[in-house]
Amino acid sequence: MGIEGPKTYDIRTYGCQMNVHDSERLSGLLEEAGYVRAPKEADGADVVVFNTCAVRENADNKLYGNLGHLAPMKTARPGMQIAVGGCLAQKDRDTIVKRAPWVDVVFGTHNIGKLPVLLERARVQQEAQVEIAESLEAFPSTLPTRRESAYAAWVSISVGCNNTCTFCIVPALRGKEEDRRPGDILAEIEALVAEGVSEITLLGQNVNAYGSDLGDREAFSKLLRACGSIDGLERVRFTSPHPRDFTDDVIAAMAETPNVMPQLHMPLQSGSDPILKAMRRSYRQERFLGIIEKVRAAIPHAALSTDIIVGFPGETEEDFEQTMHVVREARFANAFTFQYSKRPGTPAAEMDGQIPKEVVQARYERLVALQEEISWDENKKQVGRTLDVMVAEGEGRKDGATHRLSGRAPDNRLVHFTKPDEDVRPGDVVTVEITYAAPHHLLAEGPTTAVRRTRAGDAWEKRTAAAAAKPAGVLLGLPQIGVPAPLPAADAPACGAGH
């Protein structure tokens, strides 16, 4: 490619946590093929990969805008390559190369393992390679991975989704649900723990439907319980479940398995039964609130979060008030709220009763104000509690100025705490008392009660030292994600909003 040393790569990820996890696989594939990650301060990488999302508003315009910015750079750098993958690539296929002929590779959600081969083929043949598989070629977890965290990891248990929500295009792009065998999942988790990982997040488009492909309706609760017997695994989370499949055996497994964290993300979407029906959601308000009531009874300190869409076609003021009612009743710790906007290829985009933008905006602001009030009230209940906080990397943007560190409580609340005298590393666990609550974080301003150095902290230290010794492969991380929380803070749950 006319340069010295190994070729560099840069992956730009958009959308949901499934895309974040896929990007870790893409990084692993490229590094196995001899590429190294481009340093943050570099002018440009030899290979730039866009892992796209088809759910976010104006996703296509943003992609072509970004591709346009790279066109002159590519002209000035012979040998530079650009690849586009992910859900938008799966949907638009040949359109991408027609609109941006300087793109070298287009690949889909089912064949991410082909990226290095397609890049090489494009280089040799001097023409764009567009290869979109219609079904999964290899389960992503069989591919090499470059994880963004030394102490926390995503573990994919299924891909695809069998639901047909009218606002969501994900099933069309990710395919029908395919489940991994439980033994393969547990073997991956055990291997991760052996490397120093102490927190895992089980990942699926509809994570608690796990087992439908295996013929076992209780497979997910069994998997949670099996995680409880893995020595060294301290925290287990999962995302995103669907109320339809959220059964009593899952609640029991959460309550009775000590390392399954007291935290649940349960997408509501709407509190109105007519709107839920129009969305093709298979539960109603009473069923949703019943699940919340059971979870609170079994796990009193659980923090609950949700997704809500405001302004779905046909939504009346009464429908919206039903959503507000559920929010008041459920008392979510936080909510990812979205203003409905048309997504090409979804049934909802063609529905009558599209709501004027100004009406949607006004309702959205009312909902956000209510949820902010509830989030703050729920956080204030944490003041005075003593919590074990897993130290995170990149979660506290002001930590340097405030002389604090940051981490996640068991219920996944973000905690900023006073930096202790002794050395503390990401992955270690500190015990602190909460002294102040804001709507979106907690503060522990007093001295740290205890510091527990962990194998996860050792793993972070070892990895950081290795990165420092090899500058070309320096860890850039995904600073807005830190410990893989169920929902990456950088980009609210795009396809998670469809579950």
TrEMBL record:
Coiled coil: none annotated. Residues 147-378 form the Radical SAM core domain. [4Fe-4S] cluster 2 binds at residues 161, 165, 168. InterPro entries: Elp3/MiaA/NifB-like_rSAM, Methylthiotransferase, Methylthiotransferase_CS, Methylthiotransferase_N, Methylthiotransferase_N_sf, MiaB_methiolase, rSAM, rSAM_horseshoe. Binds 2 [4Fe-4S] clusters. One cluster is coordinated with 3 cysteines and an exchangeable S-adenosyl-L-methionine. [4Fe-4S] cluster 1 binds at residues 16, 53, 87. Keywords: 4Fe-4S, Cytoplasm, Iron, Iron-sulfur, Metal-binding, S-adenosyl-L-methionine, Transferase, tRNA processing. It catalyses: N(6)-dimethylallyladenosine(37) in tRNA + (sulfur carrier)-SH + AH2 + 2 S-adenosyl-L-methionine = 2-methylsulfanyl-N(6)-dimethylallyladenosine(37) in tRNA + (sulfur carrier)-H + 5'-deoxyadenosine + L-methionine + A + S-adenosyl-L-homocysteine + 2 H(+). It is found in: Cytoplasm. It comes from the Bacteria. Its cofactor is [4Fe-4S] cluster. Signal peptide: none annotated. Its EC number is 2.8.4.3. Residues 380-448 form the TRAM domain. SUPFAM superfamilies: Radical SAM enzymes. Residues 7-124 form the MTTase N-terminal domain. Belongs to the methylthiotransferase family. MiaB subfamily. Monomer. PANTHER family: CDK5 REGULATORY SUBUNIT-ASSOCIATED PROTEIN 1 (PTHR43020), MITOCHONDRIAL TRNA METHYLTHIOTRANSFERASE CDK5RAP1 (PTHR43020:SF2). Catalyzes the methylthiolation of N6-(dimethylallyl)adenosine (i(6)A), leading to the formation of 2-methylthio-N6-(dimethylallyl)adenosine (ms(2)i(6)A) at position 37 in tRNAs that read codons beginning with uridine. This is tRNA-2-methylthio-N(6)-dimethylallyladenosine synthase. It comes from Streptomyces hydrogenans.
